[in-house]
Amino acid sequence: MNTRPALADLGLGTGKKARLHRILHQNGLGNGTAIFLPYDHGLEHGPRDFADCAAASDPKYIIKLALEGEFNGIAIQIGLAQKFYWDYAGEVPLVLKLNGKTDIPSAIDPLSPVNTTVEEAVRLGADAVGYTLYVGSPAQEHDFAQYLQVRKDAERFGMPLIVWSYPRGSAIDGKGGKDSFYAVDYAARIASELGADLVKVNFPHPDKQAGVPAAYRREFSPQQAIGSVVRSANRTLLLVSGGERSGDQAMLEKARMSMEAGATGLIFGRNIWQRDHDETLRFVARLKEILAKYPSV
Ligand code: FBP
């Protein structure tokens, strides 16, 4: 098991440290772990994600849910932040997502264009900003250029930067796919090389080996794979994302293995809010039982 770095060991300036302290130690369990609620699916996938859970199409309901479930933060796009966050401003940390894309054009060379700024995040009372980086995309030159501006602004405003480090695109499809151990391990390392404060990755699948480099064409357990991913992120705190709705046991096991490996926490969207209200809160409580076992030292 890896030891999760303490806030004091991350080399952060005052603003970033203060905001991250608020997120990790004054919200959620307050023990240095985190559970975030992402809700940018209306942009990324369209309203189809709300088809089986009508309540979830209402942003007000979701922000209130983040409050009731005592999440460490809610990640939303600018429009919802402007029109809905003020109801609960300051009661649950805001992670303003700075970029996003629709899934209407097929994603051969994906790029997630920026639609707002760190400055607007400050105005809205955000405690962090989020940026999606499409690792391995042929559009990486443009991606890195817009990321540079975000990183510089985040530094200037003392705003923690969470990178959604997502392997995507034609090249990745030919090398094990977006959630192979190789791709996720590389994505974690890239976020750390590029100066992210936190990184959000998919859970790695060591069995997806078609086309991956030789070093990943061996047998690894899922626990070994996530352990290696956390090491690749080094002093960038690691969050594991949820993905499409799957069984409760599978999600709990993914959470347990991630925390055991030294991850800081979880950022689960559809697996949280694609269920009815009370069931959501019960499931969140079960996830938090796991997080409670892995406090920061
Ligand atoms: P989920 O837990 O629902 O997968 O949400 C995490 C997330 O990163 C969202 O922030 C985003 O909308 C979505 O996944 C993007 O998923 P994909 O790139 O697979 O379309």
Summary keywords:
8 strands; eight-stranded parallel barrel; alpha/beta; TIM Barrel
Please provide a written account of the structure.
The chain is α/β, with parallel strands linked by helices and 297 residues long. The protein has one domain: Aldolase class I (TIM Barrel), CATH 3.20.20.70. It has twelve helices and eight strands. An eight-stranded parallel barrel has the order 1-2-3-4-5-6-7-8, surrounded by five helices. Strand 2, helix 4 and strand 3 form a beta-alpha-beta unit. Helix 8 runs parallel beside helix 9 and helix 10 runs parallel beside helix 12. The protein starts with 13 loop residues before the first helix and ends in a 5-residue tail after the last helix. The protein binds 1,6-di-O-phosphono-beta-D-fructofuranose. The site of 1,6-di-O-phosphono-beta-D-fructofuranose has 14 residues, from helix 2, strand 5 and helix 11.
Instruction: Give the class from helix and strand content and strand pairing.
Output: alpha/beta
> What fold name stands as the CATH topology?
TIM Barrel
Question: Runs with pLDDT <50, length 5+?
Answer: none
The amount of helix comes to 40-55%
Count the helices. How many?
12
Radius of gyration: 18 Å
The multimeric state of the shown protein is single chain
